[in-house]
Amino acid sequence: MELFNTILILLALIGASNVINHKIPFVPVPLIQIALGSAIPLLASDFRLHLEPELFFVLFIAPLLYNDGKHTPRSELWRLRVPILLLAVGLVFATVFVGGYFINWMIPSIPLPVAFGLAAILSPTDAVAVGALAGRIHLPKRLMHLLEGEALMNDASGLVAFKFAIAAAVTGVFSLSKASVSFLVIFLGGLAVGAVLAGLITGLRTMLRRAGLENETMHMLIHILTPFALFLIAEELGLSGILAAVAGGVVHAVERDQAQKIKSRSHELSDNTWTIIVYLLNGLVFVILGVQLPDVFREVFADSAHNNVQAIGFALVIYILLIGMRFLWVYAYSRLHPGKKTKFSFKMLAMTSLSGVRGAVTLAGAFTIPLVLDNGAPFPERSLVIFLAAFVILFSLIAASIFLPMLAKNKIDEREDDNAKKEQAGYVALMRAAIQAVRHATTEENKDEAAIVIAEYDRWIRQFQLRKGRQRSDEQIALRLQALGIEKETVRRMAAEGAISERLAQICLQNADEIERIVAGRVRIGSVFFKRLYRMIKHAFKKERDLSVVDRRAMKGIKLRTCEAVIDAFEKEDADSTPKAAADVIRHYRFVRENLSSPYPTSRGDEKVKRDLQWIAIQAERDEVQCLYDRNEISREVANSLRRDIRNREASILQSE
Known about the structure:
Layout: H1 2-23, H2 29-43, H3 53-71, H4 74-79, H5 81-106, H6 112-122, H7 127-137, H8 141-171, H9 176-210, H10 216-236, H11 241-259, H12 264-301, H13 308-336, H14 346-354, H15 360-366, H16 382-408, H17 412-441, H18 447-464, H19 470-497, H20 502-520, H21 525-541, H22 549-572, H23 579-597, H24 604-630, H25 636-656
Helix pairs in contact: 1-2, 1-12, 2-12, 3-10, 3-11, 3-12, 5-6, 5-8, 5-13, 6-8, 6-16, 7-8, 7-16, 8-9, 8-11, 9-10, 9-11, 10-11, 10-12, 12-16, 13-14, 13-16, 14-16, 15-16, 17-18, 17-24, 17-25, 18-24, 19-20, 19-22, 19-23, 19-25, 20-25, 22-23, 24-25
């Protein structure tokens, strides 16, 4: 029960971190999650979460790197193979060599083999941290592909170097020739085993499909278990489980590309499932990292052998060394390698250096340091090594969060133009997601209503292709608010003339106010639904209806009058000022008027079915916005603009009811 409660707390913190980030978007989610995780042991002193490094790697790192390998462009990986290998292998060993000697010189109490081990575990960048930070900051695509490729590979090289360094510290024995051969076997063997096993698993899934086993849930289960199987089998063979997971992800991407046109719905299910898995695992990585930090800091701060300020200063100096080495390494490559495309500006060099974010992989590796040596003596400076690793992680995250946005900031005009293009593409993606959701919900009974809803979305896609980005969205909102103002003024005039009762006027004005707040974005449509549901329940308990048949007929007449007033007012205005946006508003009110005045209205059951399909489409639009934002394909500004469009459509549906 204690483990279950712990998992619930961690998952709740992931949700809370995204709520906080929504309010303070300039603070990256990983930093918020680390802070929330650190708060748990500080507030609840009896809370303990022991980090098992081996379990951490297989449970978190394997599926995350598998997913990254699946989505990283293979053409870019191949095109950037030289700089990726130089960073993922060359820079790692240069960092181990130079960093090890420097740490031993700066902190003589840390023996040279242990210093090599600390430098090794600090050398790999964290793919999860890079993706969480760099994607939100919108780094250049070339740099992002380089960072992604590096992060996929350098975990293995850094952990292998760390393993040999710690083994030398524990046993006192080290052979450079044996270590070099072992590294090549572990590195290349991990890639080969991962690719072969992934190919076999893909073939197994194909055989099952040909045998008639088309159960998507079963195939999704095999897909989810794949990275764990690749990691465990490779590790059991003494190879790199991390690289096996990466290779498996790349092989799956190749298989996916070949079968995408045949099994589009199965791939959609796979994408949606993996989106949830990656979202949870990403959050858990940083929350668990935060949970570990108070204990790490407490142990060193309570040790009288170490000066607290000096220990933090050591960590800062080590981080500066790592950044400096990374800068010089990339600078040397950009100057020595032939070709104009390899020449990096100072700004690009600085961004590449700061993007070398360390994360949970570093801390998890540090926790694998044994407690004692072979001779039974305590492992030298184990607590200090873990402390330094933890502070370097924090320094790298904070520095990247502060300085990368400054360096990556584009010119205002370029950013606005980019946002406009992304918004147009996002709008079309929303429409298509809604159409796909309606098609999935279509049955023999509702196919006519589904065709109507799909036709509406097809029309909106064609209309939007004539727009100019966000300007149209803001313009539509202003016109909808103007139309609602005309409706309210018409109702007040009818009440003043005695054409309708004060009670009916009040109901009409209340409904118009609710629609107005939704269109303006001052309230979410959910709160309006809850209010209406509350009124329905209240009248049901009182065994009375809020409106009689006569009142409902009167309300219908009022709505017809307000529709006529809006249509007349808009048609009298200069049609050249806002032709397309005004035409949409007029078209909506004509549609409502025709439905109300038709002598043979659509049956209530058919209309209800259509409305249900419209709400399914709206929810699909909201989900698509969140997916685009989570995949870093749109900015927060674009996401909010698209949500305004969705609220506009929600208001139209609610008003039609």
